[in-house]
Amino acid sequence: xxxxxxxxxxxxxxxxxxxxxxxxxxxxxxxxxxxxxxxxxxxxxxxxxxxxxxxxxxxxxxxxxxxxxxxxxxxxxxxxxxxxxxxxxxxxxxxxxxxxxxxxxxxxxxxxxxxxxxxxxxxxxxxxxxxxxxxxxxxxxxxxxxxxxxxxxxxxxxxxxxxxxxxxxxxxxxxxxxxxxxxxxxxxxxxxxxxxxxxxxxxxxxxxxxxxxxxxxxxxxxxxxxxxxxxxxxxxxxxxxxxxxxxxxxxxxxxxxxxxxxxxxxxxxxxxxxxxxxxxxxxxxxxxxxxxxxxxxxxxxxxxxxxxxxxxxxxxxxxxxxxxxxxxxxxxxxxxxxx
Length: 339
Prior knowledge:
- This protein is an alpha+beta fold.
- It has two domains: 3-250 and 329-338, 4-Layer Sandwich (Glutamine Phosphoribosylpyrophosphate, subunit 1, domain 1), CATH 3.60.20.10; 259-308, no CATH class.
- It has helices spanning 23-33, 61-64, 68-72, 120-129, 141-149, 155-163, 208-214, 251-256, 268-282, 298-308; strands at residues 13-18, 41-48, 51-58, 78-84, 99-103, 107-117, 168-176, 179-184, 193-196, 202-205, 217-221, 226-231, 234-239, 262-263, 266-267, 336-338.
- The strands form three sheets. An eight-stranded antiparallel beta sheet has the order 11-9-10-1-4-2-3-16.
- The protein is globular, with a radius of gyration of 20 Å.
- The chain starts with 12 loop residues before the first strand and ends with a strand.
- The model is unreliable at 1-9 and 331-339 (pLDDT under 50).
């Protein structure tokens, strides 16, 4: 596929909640804590007894949902949301998630994706041969189209079959009128966690910092190859494959994740401090101060300073009130579209 139309989605943020009266507002709050995972666009789909409402747009979450009334128009007790990051590809609103699909059995379903499919070209060719007209240019649409065109019986069986057709590192959140489903690739390349609100609502999101933001308690990590199915009757754990091997992307600890998140039982902040200490042992230098640049390196800089005995200090200060200043998308447009 030509580079100009291939969307990369390595570091997006996912948040979903089932069974909360203020689902859209909680999804907004959760996505706000995941803004570091994507600044190019954001969107939320809510579910009000099978009626879906969607708002999405280009830009930061606060730009897309600039009007507070927008959240109030996303009715329902369940919602999934997405913040998108891409370094290449089409930056139009059509690639902003969650995406919506029509399904013969469930009617309509929404999908949000974090990851990158290695066999996207092959899958796109198969779907094109089956007569699919694509709504976007990113890899994220492909699972939804596979499910919608599957010949298996039942939504979950169709989803399982479709997940076994795609390859790469991926985390998905899907929502039908009657369920929310999370799926993680066989290697667990991206983090995905389950939490519970004090009122019993279930939250599934990319990092534990989003659980903290909405006041949810951590329940468990989503394991490789798992399907987490949430309905009004509770949560069910299923699998689309048992041929799994946990191999979480190291960049989550190095750069992607927020330092106050806990991934697989390990504090990101403490992990970065240990990395900094190791660098100090392997690469000792004579210096006056240790500085952290960019923000994701602050924990590592503290670890380096503690191990080396060189004072840690502030030498470069990022303006915390501006958008991303490192590895920016190529077109920082900020328009929104309500559907």
